[in-house]
Every structure is written in structure tokens, then in C-alpha cells.
Design brief:
The protein contains 8 helices and 5 strands; from the N terminus they run βαβαβααβααβαα. With 238 residues, it is of the alpha/beta class. The radius of gyration is 17 Å and the shape is globular.
Length: 238
């Protein structure tokens, strides 16, 4: 069976990628990263998602402690606060209250070089196990303004993979698959619901509590997506 490495954070987007890759007939090899993120609950969620897809024993947890040592992000530096948006409390949505401009400045929740590192390690793992695809849940529409979620970035990394791997220079390929990159958050959720993706096992909150805050930009995007998809988010909010 063909193999795919899934960069699995335990969040909504990466879990949707698990569902998409499973439907495409891939044998799933989830890869999760512990980089000292404040929302460490996502590591537990990633294991739950992997167990749901019956590949919990395959999940690889890679530790990158230096990203926390480097700092420079609200997700890895306790001295930088996670910004809160003007979003409603609880598992609801009010038209006009969820104001989120994702096109201006790169937010403080950007982790320097994170996806570049993740994809490099995923490439090494994919080549070692003979996988032909790497799934990552980056998105260029409903996202937080991160430069390493853009199509141009993915295209360049695909070029590097061809040049830098044995399989590439011998005429084979390992391709980064980004099925969500041009989808709105609502469209992602609709696709996930069609695939019966276990969203109740996921988390999106940057603050890392057992209940999502509903106010960070990640929670706001998630809540807005569920509202626009005319669906109920199954996770619990403060």
C-alpha cells in the first residue's frame, strides 16, 4: 500500500488531512512535533486522533526543544502574550463581532521557521520509510498571516526535496500535499464532516487549556468556520 506521512498537530486542519489521506487510500504515518509550545494539549489530541485512525502505534513524536529556547513567538515564549480577538465567549458566533484581519502584519503567534523545519524532518522520514506523500494542513485563505503557509513556500520546498533526496535525483518523488491550501475554513469543516473526521478530539486554542478560550485568532477562525458551515463545534469553550 502507498504510504503518506501526515504532519499531525492534533488541530482541525491536520486532522482533516488525516481523513483526506485515508480516503485516498494511503497507509498513514503521523508525525507530531513537541517544540515547547504553550498549547501542549495538542500533543495529547494528536495521539487521540492517531488512535482513532488505528495508527496510534505508528505516531512519531519529534522533540525540538530549541524552538522554545529561541523564543520569538507567543507560542513558545511565555513573555509574549497570545493576542485575543473581539470574539464571543462560549461555543457561539455573533455576526459582526468576529472581526479578524488576517492580511496585515505577521502575528506574534508565528513561530520562526516552524514549517520549514517540520517539512525537512518529514521529508527525511518519508524517504526512510518509502512514503510518496507528505500531508500538511497549511492554508492560504482563512489563516493567521504566516509566511510558511503560502503556496509559493510549498512549491519551493517541493523543488528542494527533488534536489536534496536520493529518491528525487533517481527520478522518484516525494510530494508535499496541501489539500486545504485554497479552501476556506468553512469548506475545510464541510469536507471534514463529510469524511467523519473526529473534530471532538481536536483542539485549536493557542492558550492550551482543557477548554478552548474562544478568543485567540485560532479559536476565532475555527468558530467562524463552523458557523459558516452551519455546523456545531463539538469541543468545549470557556
Amino acid at each position: 500500500m502507498k504510504k503518506a506521512v501526515i504532519i499531525l498537530s492534533g488541530g482541525l486542519d491536520s486532522t482533516t488531512c488525516m481523513g483526506i489521506a485515508a480516503e485516498a487510500g494511503y497507509s498513514l504515518y503521523p508525525l507530531t512535533f513537541d517544540y515547547g509550545q504553550r498549547h501542549r494539549i495538542e500533543l495529547l489530541n494528536a495521539q487521540k486522533v492517531a488512535d482513532h485512525y488505528c495508527v496510534g502505534d505508528k505516531l512519531k513524536l519529534i522533540t525540538l526543544p530549541f524552538l522554545r529556547d529561541f523564543g520569538g513567538s507567543a507560542l513558545t515564549d511565555d513573555q509574549i502574550a497570545v493576542p485575543h480577538m473581539d470574539a464571543p465567549q462560549g461555543n457561539g458566533y455573533t455576526e459582526g463581532k468576529m472581526m479578524l484581519d488576517v492580511n496585515e502584519d505577521i502575528p506574534v503567534t508565528y513561530v520562526p521557521g516552524r514549517n520549514l523545519l517540520f517539512l525537512s524532518i518529514a521529508t527525511s522520514y518519508a524517504e526512510a520509510i518509502g512514503a510518496e506523500a507528505i500531508y500538511i494542513g497549511v492554508n492560504a485563505l482563512d489563516y493567521s498571516g504566516y509566511p510558511d503557509c503560502r503556496p509559493d513556500f510549498i512549491d519551493k520546498v517541493n523543488e528542494v526535496i527533488t534536489l536534496a533526496t536520493k529518491v528525487g535525483v533517481q527520478g522518484g518523488s516525494i510530494r508535499i500535499q496541501t489539500p486545504l491550501i485554497h479552501m476556506t475554513k468553512a469548506d475545510i469543516i464541510r469536507e471534514g464532516l463529510r469524511l467523519e473526521v473526529p473534530y471532538a478530539l481536536t483542539t485549536s486554542c493557542y492558550n492550551g487549556g482543557t477548554k478552548a478560550c474562544g478568543e485567540c485568532d485560532s479559536c476565532v477562525l475555527r468558530l467562524r468556520g463552523f458557523a459558516e458551515a452551519d455546523a456545531v463545534d463539538p469541543i468545549i469553550y470557556l
